[in-house]
Design goal:
Layout: E1 5-9, H1 14-25, E2 29-34, H2 46-51, E3 56-59, H3 65-71, E4 77-80, H4 87-90, H5 94-114, E5 121-127, E6 135-138, E7 142-144, H6 151-155, E8 171-173, H7 186-205, E9 209-214, E10 216-218, H8 231-240, E11 245-247, E12 254-255, E13 257-259, H9 260-272, E14 279-283, E15 289-290, H10 291-302, E16 308-310, H11 327-333, H12 341-352, H13 362-371
Parallel strand pairs: 1-2, 1-4, 2-3, 4-5, 5-9, 9-14, 10-13, 11-16
Antiparallel strand pairs: 6-7, 6-8, 12-15
Length: about 375
Amino acid sequence: MKYKNVLITGGAGFIGSNLSLKLIEKGYKVTVLDNLSPQIHEKKSPLYNAIKDKVRFIQGTVLSYDDWKNALDGVEIVVHLAAETGTGQSMYEIEKYTDVNIKGTSIFLDILANENHSVKKIIIASSRSIYGEGKYECSIHGIVYPTERKDEDMKNSDFKVKCPICNENVKLFATDETSKIHPSSIYGITKQVQEQMFLVMGKSLNIPVVAFRYQNVYGAGQSLSNPYTGILSIFSTRIKNGNDITIFEDGKESRDFVYIDDVVDATILGIEKDEANYEVFNVGFGKAIDVLTVANSLVNEYSSSSKIEISGNYRLGDIRDNYADLTKIKEKLGFEPKVSFEEGIRRFVKWVNLQEVSEDKYEKSMNEMKAKGLYK
């Protein structure tokens, strides 16, 4: 172990708490900086309770210079996970998302550039959202990177992705790290800016930076009370409250679902391997799963009578498809995802069945987006 003192911002969250526990098991000393946002940590969640006596915990915010300075004392590795994360919510809480995700980053980097510190390496949690729509092939124009879908097409229930040159339907490919960066939400824009800020300043300050573009992370421990992000938890909370599930578009929109244990393993490879330095990596399972399959899998696992309705409605800023090409992370870091979607669903449902039923706030979140004109 080259370095042993780690700061994890957002370390009481879903990824952060699991990463904290694994690092402690491996002999690291962990400091956590987290604001315990009520949107995620109702009544101080099990995630916080699992780590509070095992880490040096600082309840604070990345928007505070003093909180950063306190948290960085003696730290050699920083894993920056703290962020506002809801794609839909980011389209109307713009100031909040840019403040936390960009200003919070700038305060940290300002400290590194101007103050004494002991930081030797940084891991930044980027996101698949920076790609916008993923990589596709047009039968006429070859590989293309489509822009956002047109409102008029989706009004007519045409949700397919089109070639940006000829407007013909295109075929989905796995998105690699050299693919075009063109986010379609404020959240995605903030993560792109955040990643670039870290990589530029890391090279300038001679501090190795590793950026992980996480796909849709899920698993035991994720917030069941946050209606803005995490499709599996949103659907599960609907099911546990005896409510039906409404699916946007035609149900064929897809994502790459990667289990939390695999995400933690990938992140630790980034911490420990010099081959990761100054590189960006996709972290996913490498397979596209459509939303209708997700809903049916959950209803079956819960043995639920909840009905699944395909509404034809859509949200502005949502992408159609994206799944990760994992060639780079496999070759450079030796990463191999171990938990299949089927196994991950079983583990997740088993965990949810042991939790108290959370209040279903989904309708409230949808009404917010309708009021802003973002849900059609």
